[in-house]
TrEMBL record:
<dbReference type="InterPro" id="IPR016047">
    <property type="entry name" value="M23ase_b-sheet_dom"/>
</dbReference>
<feature type="domain" description="M23ase beta-sheet core">
    <location>
        <begin position="1"/>
        <end position="91"/>
    </location>
</feature>
<dbReference type="InterPro" id="IPR011055">
    <property type="entry name" value="Dup_hybrid_motif"/>
</dbReference>
<dbReference type="InterPro" id="IPR050570">
    <property type="entry name" value="Cell_wall_metabolism_enzyme"/>
</dbReference>
<keyword id="KW-0732">Signal</keyword>
<protein>
    <submittedName>
        <fullName>Murein DD-endopeptidase MepM/ murein hydrolase activator NlpD</fullName>
    </submittedName>
</protein>
<dbReference type="Pfam" id="PF01551">
    <property type="entry name" value="Peptidase_M23"/>
</dbReference>
<dbReference type="GO" id="GO:0004222">
    <property type="term" value="F:metalloendopeptidase activity"/>
</dbReference>
<keyword id="KW-0378">Hydrolase</keyword>
Amino acid sequence: MDLGAPPATIIRSAGAGTVIFAGRVAGHGVVSIEHAGGLRTTYQPLHVDIAAGQTVTTGTPLGTLATGHDGCPAPACLHWGLRRGADYLDPLLLLALGRVRLLPTASP
C-alpha cells in the first residue's frame, strides 16, 4: 500500500514488535518489524532512526519519510506492507477499520 504524505513526516510502528531489519535496500531506507502471530510490517523509503533488534510499541518512531518511491503521485509516499509468512496481506487490516462495503449511488 502506498500512502502519500509530506517528506520528513515521522513514520511510526503500526504495532508492538521487534525490529528485524533497519537499513538500506536498493538505495532506500527500509524498516521491517516482526509482530505477534507471525505478522511482519515493512516501511519504506525512510531516513531510518532505529536499529535492528530494538523492541517497539505501537507508535514508536521508526524514521522520517524520504522521497523517491517510484510511481508516487504525491511529494512523497510511504510504501507500507504486511505479510504473514510468504503471504502478503492488506495492511489496513491492522487499523481495525471494519469491512469495506460499497454503497449504491443515488439514482438521478
